[in-house]
Design goal:
Shape: globular
Number of helices: 9
Radius of gyration: 19 Å
Strand content: 15-25%
Distance between the termini: 24 Å
Largest sheet: 8 strands, mixed
Structural class: alpha/beta
Length: 301
């Protein structure tokens, strides 16, 4: 079966997607087009680059999650160090480790820029906060007078995974020498399930996301920090939750995160195994009842 795939952003929990993809591949699902936000962009990029789920699982097992927090000497100064990074660089940590990791894996497959992939194979969501725009890369590169050959896939992934305030924004200079600050695609669409939709699809688009029935926030806001935290959580979750609840549940593999948070960077071997198993089981259960013809019949015009 041929299918498109769209992966939600989910931080370190995204390793569960590798388990889910493995289950799909065992049922002979072949990926036509791929898209994602944040860690979903990581999985989408590796699949688009020719990696199998087994190879991705192995790579993610060897990934040093602790290095995602790219620390500088300032981060090591108690109390004021992280605040100084936030003031001077607009983010506490660097995100270079992820970029270099993606770069090395894709280089092994002979891939560097979007131009090295078939047209329309991969789409990565990011947020241009300098211009107030959602970026779909590489589709929107003409806005910046750039071509797919101008942008490394690893750079786009780093942009999409740059969680606001936690990671530094990516300073991106266009061919017109204008600088934009780019952040996490989840600011505008954490689960872009709509991206491949057409009126009469030839094959399905499968979504991969974590189970979230509601926006989990603290109703009591005792400090400005808690206010910001609630605004951030609502912004990142509420829009896509409404979209999936009304339109797309039937084509979405919903994966239990089992209490593991997106920024739990110190994953144990047991937690990695739990996430992989969670994704694998969720995909197997989904495929047991999936019927594309039935789905098409029920779709709204």
């Amino acid at each position: 079966m041929r299918a498109d795939a769209v992966f939600e952003g989910g931080g370190v929990r995204g390793i569960a997607f590798a388990g889910a993809v493995e289950a799909m591949e065992e049922e002979n699902v072949q990926w036509e087009r791929l898209a994602g936000t944040s860690v979903g962009a990581v999985i989408a990029a590796l699949l688009a680059g020719g990696y199998t789920s087994v190879e991705i699982k192995e790579a993610m097992r060897n990934f040093d999650y602790a290095k995602l927090r790219g620390e500088t000497f300032l981060n090591r100064i108690p109390l004021i160090g992280n605040l100084a990074e936030l003031i001077f660089h607009f983010g506490i940590y660097k995100n270079d480790y992820l970029k270099d990791w993606i770069d090395s894996l894709l280089h092994a497959k002979g891939i560097k820029t979007f131009a090295d992939l078939p047209s329309d194979k991969l789409k990565i969501i990011a947020s241009d906060i300098s211009n107030g725009l959602m970026l779909i890369l590489p589709d929107d590169l003409d806005r910046y007078h750039m071509t797919p050959a101008d942008v490394k896939i690893s750079t786009a992934v780093m942009m999409s995974a740059s969680m606001p305030f936690y990671f530094r924004p990516v300073k991106w200079k266009s061919n017109l020498q204008h600088t934009s600050y780019i952040l996490d695609g989840g600011l505008l669409s954490n689960f872009p399930i709509w991206i491949f939709d057409v009126e009469k699809p030839r094959f399905p688009t499968f979504g991969f996301r974590f189970i979230k029935d509601e926006v989990r926030i603290d109703p009591v806001i005792p400090t400005p920090f808690h206010l910001f935290q609630n605004i951030f959580k609502t912004m990142m979750q509420a829009h896509d939750m409404r979209y999936i609840s009304e339109e797309t549940k039937e084509r979405t593999i919903q994966i239990p995160a089992l209490g593991i948070n997106s920024t739990d960077f110190d994953l144990t071997e047991e937690e990695i195994r739990i996430l992989l198993d969670s994704g694998y089981t969720a995909a197997k259960e989904f495929l047991a009842t999936w019927d594309f013809e039935k789905y098409q019949h029920k779709r709204k015009p």
